[in-house]
Amino acid sequence: MDTVNDNHPTDRPTAVDDRDAAPAGRAPTVADILALPVLSAGRPEVVTGVAHLDRPVRWVHITELTDPASFLKGGELVLTTGMPLPEDPAGVRRYVDELARVDAAALVIELVRRYHRPPDALVQACRARGLPLITLAKDVNFLEVTQVVHSLILGSQAEAMRRTQRIHEAFTALTLRGAGPEDVVRVAAQLSGHTVVLENLVHQALTYEVSGSTLEEALTDWEQRSRATPTGDHPGVGGPEGWLTAPVEYQGERWGRVAMLPVRAGEPAFGPEHITVLERTAMALAVARLIHPTPWERTAHRDALRDLAEQRHHSPEDARARFAALGLPTEDSRFLAILVDVRTADLRTSVIPTSDLGTSDSDEAVVLETRLSQEARAAGIPALVGELAPGRLGILLALRPSQPWRPVAEQLSRAALDVASPAVVSVGSEVTDLRDTARSFRAAARVAEATPPGQPLPPDRSFHELPDIGLRRLLYAFREDPRIQEYAERRLSPLIDHDTRHGTDLLTTLRHYLDAAGNKTTTARRGALSRETVYQRLRTIERLLACDLESGEERTELHVALTALDILRGRP
User: Fold this and answer.
1) 113 to each of 84, 142, 262, 263, how far by Cα in Å?
2) What is the C-alpha separation between 513 and 521, in angstroms, rounded?
3) N- to C-terminal Cα distance for the chain?
4) Cα gap 260→179, rounded to integer Å
5) Coil, strand or helix at 221
6) What does the alpha-carbon distance between residue 99 and residue 191 come to, in Å, rounded to a whole number?
7) Is 130 left (phi over 0), alpha (psi -120 to 50) or beta?
8) Who's near 230: CB < 8 A, 6+ residues apart?
9) pTM to 2 decimals?
10) Of 50, 118, 170, 229, which has the maximum CB count within 10 A?
């Protein structure tokens, strides 16, 4: 449809092109109705108010009265032949002012009987009040227009009622099955077609579902944008971006709010259906909070860390936007991943008051997450703490460029061991970009995999790191690999079988010999044997294993096989 710029008046109005009727479920707009065949036959032309053709039309009113506003309730499309218009400009302005005051959707005047062009006073008055003025060049049956439009409006209202019912049914089903906040927010985004975000009271985006934009676009500078949008007591549109927000609360206690974002900046305001979706979203989130006592922040941190460790973000920009929205500095920071394995730990829940746990469940993850989060906050260290897998917690530290990481890691490690002992704390590699933190998590995981329960700590610290991994711990990490098992069995089974059949202990002699780096005197002393016996046993070992024990390479191979065998037998 061609448009007229109201800032540059023209004597030639704009023709209205054909367009589809209103989408099902929403009230038709002025533009939708002008596109209907019953009106387009009159060659409608928009004279003023082009920018307001998206106004919803709630009814059609035919009038030949000089004061039609007294019969209107707002949202009507007013049809007139122009016969009742006052002659004087003041009367025309008063006529238009009354229509604008009751929020009439538009004025349609037929240029057939009294006028053949719209009066200048009428054009000026409508332009001044932002009231769309549409002229009809040909005669139109107004009664037929009302019948068609009213049928369209009633049909839209019926569809809107059906959609509202489906909205209520969807959220009722979520509540009955005890859905968590992630499911609630996801359904809200699906039903509305908009991005929906749940935030806490300090404007951290905890749970979100993006629709019609990217994660980066939705969450970048979240706290700043959120603080610019005031929080009301009821669902409403506000802020510079026109967010639709609703508080999430129960019996006067507010936990946060849920926000629905426009698909594009400056798009039309949200409709009643969107408000219904957001109201039900807020209610369902309040119920979810009561059913699931785990704090939203803990769940958000867990999900974010898992996605980061497993590289499930679409782009580095998405990851940075998400973690910044959770309150973690992502610029000018260095990052370090720490893992705490508690699968064999003896948990001491008494170190944390039950009231601080946020749940009656005393599992290791809840207790440790709470303690470690408290420890990081007390030290002023930005950190996210969350359970990555059953029995394994992850910590992501955001350190200042000049801040050494070892004292921080030591402080958190000691806190973890205070709660759960003997937990295994492993530290990954330090990285300078958030997108590389997956590498830090992988390094920490390799350390954890190579650390058996009860592994002694280094004398100067409470955590393990990559340089601690030697041959024995490397083989421990690969103990379930069939290739390691097959290698140990192939190299040593002849000796083991001989000891079993003959009641000898050649395997122990071989161990003493390899530990002594081939020194026969030391081997004899450690085995409480004579040198002659040691020589005899070594010759037997060489024959059974078809090897040369004077060869450094073969001694190394046997040492690896024997170490692997000890680990497989549970002697790490």
Assistant:
1) 12, 14, 45, 45
2) 9
3) 79
4) 20
5) coil
6) 36
7) left
8) 238, 239
9) 0.69
10) 118
